[in-house]
Amino acid sequence: MKMSRQFPLNALRVFEAAARLMSFTKAGEELGLTQTAVSYQVKLLEDTLGEPLFLRRPRQVTLTPAGERLAPRLSEAFALMGDAIASLKDTADGTLVIHSTATFAARWLARHIGTFQLENPGIAVRLETSQEVVDFSRIEADVAIRSGKGKWPGLTADLLVKNHFTPMLSPDLADTVGGINQPADLLKLRLIDPADPWWLIWFAAAGVPDVDLSGRQSSRFGAQAFEAAAAVAGQGVAILMPEFYTDDVALGRLVQPFDVVADDGSDYWLVYPESRRNVPKIRAFRSWLVAAMARPWQTSR
Description:
It is built from 11 helices and 10 strands.
């Protein structure tokens, strides 16, 4: 008997979306269906299988044990079907869509991606930046560069570089307070951004554990690269990953007053769906990027 006669394929697709989003309403928005239509398709699948897949409560649905077993396998199956269809639309190697944090893209990736393209002339590249965590099921993306602990369900994460941070500022700004000779001297200047938890971690590592930054004016720039630009302009002291700014130091635009660096356990990772780990363009980019990041850092050309 054909699969389409054994199981309602539309209902399988609707169930996969509802299980992934844990909401009939959100599944309907994703698929262009009403909540009633989603509920009908799920009930149709449950009747076909002979057991419930969701526990329905007011304003909430949860998966039954049967639903928990079925949902991840369906997600992988639909991902494989999506890859198969995409491969028919793309050229031999296709377009690699990379989502990256703004800082990593501006301070490293944009300066080196041309080397990858020279080595892989059949792969076109589209680079997009976002500070939000990319949902591969909703956004067109092949890989993403993320900062974090390296544990994201359903995703493979390859470590790129350990993340650490230290204060950096314009030498002209340092001169306005007679130089920065000890960590506490930084408190004489505006900090960018004092609400960033990195500051308290760094001050503790530098031997100043009881700093109170609560009364300082907060200013959120949204990305480390923008904070660095403000520091270069003399607008304050930024807490940065120093490897990203070696060219600014060499040109005298920034100084790192102390050798002390600290970390919060988060690092930079290349991530992609586990079901797509063998896609040729993803394998090619992973191999190039991991090898490139293993070499000594050089942010400038």
